[in-house]
Amino acid sequence: MIPPKPVPRPDRVSLLRYLRLFRDDILSAQPARLYRAWMAEFRTPFFRSYLLNQPALIETVLKERPEDFPKSDRVGEGLRPLLGNSVFLTNGETWKRQRRIIDPAFEGGRLRDTFPAIWAAGEAAVARMPDGILDVEPEMSHAAADVIFRTLFSLPIENEIAARVFAEFREYQRTQPILNAAAFLSLPRWMPRGHRARTRATARSIRALITQLTAARMAEIEAGTAPDDLATKIMTTADPLTGETFSTEEMVDQVAIFFLAGHETSASALGWALCLLAMYPDWQERLAGEAEMLDGPDFSVMSRLKLSRDVFREALRLYPPVPMMVRETTCPERFRDRDIRVGSQLVISPWHLHRHNRIWDNPDGFDPARWQTENGRRCMREAYIPFSAGARVCTGAGFAMVEGPLLLSMLVRAFRFERVAGRDPVPVAYLTVRARDGIVLRVTRR
Ligand code: HEM
Fold first, then answer.
1. What confidence category does residue 191 fall into, taking pLDDT thresholds of 50, 70 and 90?
2. What's the Cα-to-Cα distance from 321 to each of 167, 349, 354, 386, rounded to whole Å?
3. CA–CA separation, 244 and 223 (whole Å)
4. 8 A C-beta contact, residue 361 and residue 40
5. pTM for the whole thing?
6. How many CB atoms lie within 10 A of CB 4?
7. H/E/C letters for each residue in 395-429?
8. E strands within 13-108?
């Protein structure tokens, strides 16, 4: 038995069929050979893009020369109405300035302060989880959204505005499959795409709600009554180079991306981790045993939840929530003896790299013990990028590696998760890697 994997398409298909497959799901639109290739070129009448699947090439793009490979504008197109000038979409000097202000809020010491809010969200998720046969994905989205609101604004998801933002986001994702083929494949500008009116309206309404929260916080900061959470920290941090702080408008852009990047991704990883634990009950029992040590919001427990961390890592390997990332070339490049023109799209696919047949032992298998082996340790350094790598690495990586293992431990301590015959999920890539018909499990309180 191997964990669910989409069936790849045949090696040769027409462009039209490729685009159709792509619209349905970018994972099953790809041929099986990408799990063995070091690089692949996609040539069509309209565009050329390259999938880079060799650790050394990925290192060049993400770590050695990130400034030569900015984020492609086209990927941001679908997101701009919602995210404005958020750190996720900007490049160059603007991006650097934003990271200088945001990064201190996510540093190690700060995670310790944030821990009690994550713990409280975990307790609320355990209290909310129903018994019976159910789709755990929405439960995990709810939990991860709660984590973000509690850590950012000291508000539980039951707060009226938080609940509305969460509901509107769900609507937004329904109207806007964000990794759409047009953006990804760099279709020519004349081809119709546009943001549907509904998507734009939802984006506006989400931004209006976030503006209310941010403006209220600005007032509290000025009055000296603001709680000491991530929002206050970010809004009071001055750029060490210019002394400037974020304006309310710019903070709204950042809050939108923290919410989007921080809850969809963690929810996806937690959903898949529960699915894997249901498929491998022996691991689940070991985790439940380890979780006995949980005893109140004490940050030091994180260094002892080793099995949970290894399981969560393995879930991020097999189902990287961000399956692919796109960059653009700004100068002529030569990769693997091929000349690559300026303006080419470079696709880096954690999905394929994490299952690369020539790099990983047992690439499609679930084996959390691999991280203690020599192959596992080498792969972790060279071929494991669930949070990307280099200068643009996920700001929330450390945060997510606390949230994920902690919530997983709290959940398996309280519940048993089992497979439901005939309902094994099929992974598809929407905004993040999700299950086509949800992750349906039998949940029983222990
Ligand atoms: C399991 C959870 C998570 C995963 C797998 C994940 C993954 C990623 C990846 C792959 C990127 C790079 C995307 C690209 O370059 O195109 C990214 C960027 C980012 N993530 Fe995360 N993320 C997670 C959780 C979070 C959390 C909890 C937060 C914040 C609270 C967050 C905030 C961000 C931000 C702000 C960026 C943009 C960084 C930049 O471009 O400079 N993420 N994330």
1. very low
2. 21, 11, 12, 7
3. 19
4. no
5. 0.94
6. 18
7. CCHHHHHHHHHHHHHHHHHHEEEEECCCCCCCEEE
8. 39-43, 48-52
What 212-218 contacts at long range (C-beta under 8 Å, 24+ apart), as own/partner pairs, is 212/161, 213/153, 213/155, 213/161, 213/255, 214/248, 214/251, 214/252, 214/255, 215/248, 217/153, 218/248, 218/251
Q: Is the CB of 269 under 6 A from ligand 1?
A: yes
Q: CA-CA distance, 125 to 146, in Å (whole number)? A: 9
Cβ of 408 closer than 6 Å to ligand 1, yes or no, is no
Question: Residue 166 is encoded by which pair of tokens?
Answer: 């969460």
Q: Which residues pair with 347 in a beta bridge?
A: 51, 326
75-79, 111-115, 425-429: least confident range? 75-79
**Backbone dihedral angles phi then psi of residue 433, each to the nearest 5 degrees:** -75, 115
Q: Counting Cβ atoms within 10 Å, is residue 79 exposed (0-12), middle (13-18) or buried (19+)?
A: buried
pLDDT of residue 46: 65
Q: Which of 179, 265, 268 to mutate to test the pocket of ligand 1 (most atoms within 8 A of CB)?
A: 265
Asked whether 81 lines ligand 1 (CB < 6 A), one says no
Q: Which tokens is 376 given?
A: 């596992």
Ligand 1 center to residue 367 CA distance, Å?
Answer: 25
- Residue 74: the pLDDT is 67
**Would you say residue 97 has pLDDT above 80?**
yes
If one residue of 99, 230, 394 were mutated to test the ligand 1 pocket, choosing by the most ligand atoms within 8 A of its CB, it would be 394
Q: Report whether residue 323 contacts ligand 1, using a CB cutoff of 6 Å.
A: no
Which of 364, 348, 354, 406 minimizes the C-alpha distance to 384?
354
Distance 263 CA to ligand 1 centre (A): 10
Please determine, for residue 179, whether its predicted confidence score (pLDDT) is greater than 60.
no
How far is CA 52 from its chain centroid? Answer: 20
Which residue's CA is the closest to the ligand 1 atom numbered 3?
Answer: 265
| Distance in angstroms (rounded) separating the CA atoms of residues 6 and 28 | 6
Buried b / exposed e along 334-373 (16+ C-beta atoms within 10 A): ebeeeebeeebbbbbbbbbbbbbeebbeebeebbbebbee
- The residue type of 284 is Q
Angle (nearest 5°) at CA 255 between 203 and 165: 50
Percentage with pLDDT > 70 across the chain: 89
Take residue 299 and report the two structure tokens written for it. Answer: 């940050």
CA 3 vs CA 6, 28, 332, 355: distances in Å: 10, 15, 40, 12
